[in-house]
Design goal:
The complex is a heterodimer of chains A (about 230) and B (about 350).
Chain A: H1 6-34, H2 39-53, H3 56-67, H4 72-79, H5 88-113, H6 116-124, H7 129-157, H8 161-167, H9 177-186, H10 190-218
Helix pairs in contact in A: 1-5, 1-7, 2-5, 3-8, 5-7, 5-8, 6-7, 7-10, 9-10
Chain B: E1 3-10, E2 15-22, E3 27-30, H1 37-45, E4 52-57, E5 60-64, E6 69-70, E7 78-81, H2 93-98, H3 106-119, H4 135-148, E8 153-157, H5 165-182, E9 186-190, H6 193-199, E10 202-207, E11 210-216, H7 217-222, H8 227-232, E12 237-245, E13 248-251, E14 256-259, E15 270-273, E16 279-280, H9 285-288, E17 293-304, E18 307-314, E19 326-331, H10 332-339, E20 345-348, E21 355-357
Parallel strand pairs in B: 3-9, 3-10, 7-8, 8-9
Antiparallel strand pairs in B: 1-2, 1-4, 4-5, 5-6, 10-11, 12-13, 12-15, 13-14, 15-21, 16-20, 17-18, 17-20, 18-19
Helix pairs in contact in B: 3-4
The chains are: A mainly alpha (about 230), B alpha+beta (about 350).
Chain lengths: ~230, ~350
């Protein structure tokens, strides 16, 4: 049985790129949210978390409306001669949007845990806001942010519904592992579906275990509940 | 050289309105909890914004509402010591101390950190994380970190309150020595009047957001300007008072007439005496004939490590209620003598020991 391995490459490239995007945007959104109160901020919370509660097909449909030929962003991109729908960037967009809430929630919780007096102490010592973030807030919130990164990566790797709607299933371009599995089952090729499932399980397990192990190596004493 | 402070800030439960200045000698801001002490410090450091007023160091405005100046904390060059030190838990002792020295060239930076570590007697602890240090060591790291940026003034928020009692004496002496070397405005906040007295030269007493007294500590302790300040400086005994002649007042709550040492200028609302200043007289008739001497009975006694607190009723034997007129502090030695004498004992409220407090 000859297996086209391109879904592995596409899945990994998509998940890594999407996780990198959510890492930056999720932290940025968490910082933006940290200094705000009121109904506007609560509404933004709702918007940020919507992809988590909506069915992926709804997310996919909304993304189609936005990035489609007649959508606001789609038309803008078309102006520059680019189309997103049914291209590799579409897989990244879909994966990033559905994994964003996990990153946002984790980053927000982790940043809120940092003692504000430490940030104030850094300011009185002459540190700029960027320096306070980079040298105090980020390192102290890092374990929580890392957990969010793992969750976001896992969610991106498993993304199916929105990806299928926005990016379709073009072998070698937009066909990720979950989509390959779906079409293998639909074509009644159970061996291929089983092979892809095994590969998917191994990738997820390796990635998650690896990241936790790496995090543990870096800061063995930082976990509050660790046995010593 | 002076830190000048004058501002108002509306808070949830009261309005903070303060005006005082701090020269090169240590100044203590003394007040009960919730008087606005820490908020005052945070406003000076730039962590909170006053509603209006002016804060300036050596003529340089840090905050001036009339000119729209409000320097961020990072530009104020204030050395701030937090109550719980706020050491960066993910950085070592040396990294904590060098945190504020980003602007210096590396060689100078290393030299400065080494100097501060030596001054704070932290040699050998450079590479430890803060959580491995004792409370006293943590306090020294926090102070060294604040002093490393060579601040123009120092702000200390309850610098000793996080320490165990047995460590305090030693840390307090080190802190007094550090403040003496600093020779720039240093202001610290405390609710402990003895700490304030030992560590500071000048005192600002803050109650409910207002400056109730401001001046040399000796003056404020010797002649508090009002009852509130007297109580904050440890006065235990006071009675409502009515002036009856040029040098006599009637103590309404103590049912007696008292001679005072000097002619009264303004009619007092209260008369008070500190618990340590109550004299117990020998039983001789000559002594009993002295002014301001009254018979008293013991209501109850409460032992302290090196002495005793006596609660006394004047003029007649105490009733069942446990009510008392005076509270006296005695060392154990004196108590052992007094204990065997039959009651009533005789106390003298010496005229020169009385505090006359205006309303």
């Amino acid at each position: 049985m000859a297996l086209d391995l391109s879904p592995i490459r596409i899945s990994l490239e998509t998940s890594v790129t999407a996780t990198a995007i959510t890492l930056v945007t999720g932290i940025a959104a968490a910082i933006w949210r940290a200094n705000r109160r009121g109904i506007g901020a609560a509404l933004m919370d709702g918007l940020f978390l919507l992809p988590l509660v909506l069915p992926p097909t709804v997310v996919g449909f909304l993304l189609l409306l936005i990035f489609g030929r007649h959508g606001p962003l789609g038309r803008l991109l078309l102006h520059f001669g680019a189309t997103v729908v049914f291209s590799w960037p579409a897989t990244v967009i879909a994966a990033a949007v559905v994994s964003f809430p996990l990153m946002y929630l984790s980053a927000r919780a982790a940043l809120e845990q940092v003692d504000p007096r430490l940030l104030q102490a850094a300011r009185t010592l002459g540190a700029s806001e960027w320096c306070v973030f980079r040298r105090i807030a980020l390192p102290l919130a890092w374990p929580g942010i890392l957990a969010g990164t793992i969750l976001a990566f896992a969610r991106a790797l498993g993304e199916f519904g929105a990806t299928l709607m926005l990016a379709g299933s073009i072998p070698g371009r937009t066909q990720t592992i979950p989509i390959a599995i779906y079409f293998a089952v639909e074509a009644n090729d159970l061996h291929q579906a089983a092979a892809w499932s095994l590969i998917d399980i191994s990738i997820s397990l390796t990635m998650i275990a690896g990241m936790y192990y790496w995090a543990h190596l870096r800061s063995p004493e930082r976990t509050q509940w660790s046995r010593r | 050289m002076a830190l000048e402070i004058q501002f108002e800030k509306r808070l949830a439960s009261f309005n903070l309105s303060v005006e005082f200045s701090c020269g090169a000698e240590p100044l203590a801001v003394l007040g009960p909890s919730g008087a606005g002490k820490s908020m005052t410090l945070r406003c000076i450091a730039g962590l909170e914004r006053p509603d209006r007023g002016r804060i300036a160091i050596n003529g340089r405005a840090l905050f001036d509402s009339s000119k729209g100046i409000n320097l961020p904390a990072r530009e104020r060059r204030a050395g701030l010591l937090f109550q719980n030190y706020a050491l960066f838990p993910h950085l070592t002792v040396a990294e904590n101390i060098s945190f504020g020295l980003d602007g210096l060239p590396p060689a100078q930076r290393t030299a400065r950190v080494q100097k501060k570590i030596a001054q704070a007697q932290l040699e050998g602890l450079e590479n430890r994380p803060p959580h491995e240090l004792s409370g006293g060591e943590q306090q020294r790291v926090a102070l060294a970190r604040a002093l490393a940026i060579e601040p123009e003034f120092l702000l200390l928020d309850e610098p000793l309150s996080a320490l165990d009692t047995h460590l305090r004496g030693q840390i307090e002496r080190q802190l007094i020595a550090t403040l003496a070397q600093f020779r720039r405005p240093a202001l610290f906040v405390t609710h402990n009047m003895e700490e304030a007295y030992r560590m500071a030269t000048n005192l600002v007493v803050l109650t409910k957001g207002r400056v109730a007294a401001n001046g040399a500590k000796e003056t404020i302790f010797r002649q508090p300007p009002n009852l509130e300040v007297a109580l904050l400086t440890g006065l235990k005994n006071f009675s409502r008072a009515k002036q009856i002649s040029a040098d006599k007042v009637e103590a309404l709550d103590w049912n007696c007439t008292l001679c005072v040492a000097r002619a009264i200028s303004t009619p007092p609302a209260y008369v008070g005496i500190r618990a340590h200043y109550i004299d117990f007289l020998e039983a001789s008739p000559r002594e009993r004939a002295l002014t301001n001497t009254f018979p008293c009975w013991l209501v109850r006694a409460s032992e302290t490590p090196f002495g005793i607190t006596l609660y006394l009723q004047l003029h007649h034997t105490p009733g069942e209620t446990g009510a008392y007129h005076l509270q006296a502090e005695l060392f154990t030695e004196k108590w052992l003598q007094l204990r065997d004498q039959s009651q009533p004992w005789h106390v003298r409220l010496a005229p020169e020991s009385l505090l006359l407090l205006p309303s």
